[in-house]
Design brief:
By secondary structure, the protein is of the alpha/beta class. It contains four helices and nine strands. The protein has a five-stranded mixed beta sheet. It has a two-stranded antiparallel ribbon with strand order 1-9.
Length: about 140
Amino acid sequence: MVTQAIAIDVTDNPRGLYAAPEYLAQVGMPETMADLRAHQCLATVGTTHWAFERRNRVVRQAIGGRFTADSIEALHQASLEGLGIVMLSQWNVLADLRAGRLIGISLTDALVPDQGIWGVLPTSRLVPARVRLFLDALADYLRLA
């Protein structure tokens, strides 16, 4: 008997563009997707485009920058140091937004799409209670962040 893995939608994962106030004071606030070409964009190694949503369609914008990393935390730290604009999950930067260490960037012509958080289970049958409890606690934590 072959079992099939299932995916459980844990919670939404709103994301956005963020930068340190010092960076934006030096180079200005981007207003459109195209403006990002003139900015230092902090992205994972090998990333050449960011995906956005415009009129219910996914569109891609070429990006570039002097700093890349294979760690989201390194990109987060680089943004705090004023090295450029980063695309991160809202829950990851909420404390920095509240403290004024980062500023959210809203583009006039596109939105950063949500990338929900999913739990993948080997089967829907006989899922241990501790796994369900963990997924519920994770969803609660991320909703409160």
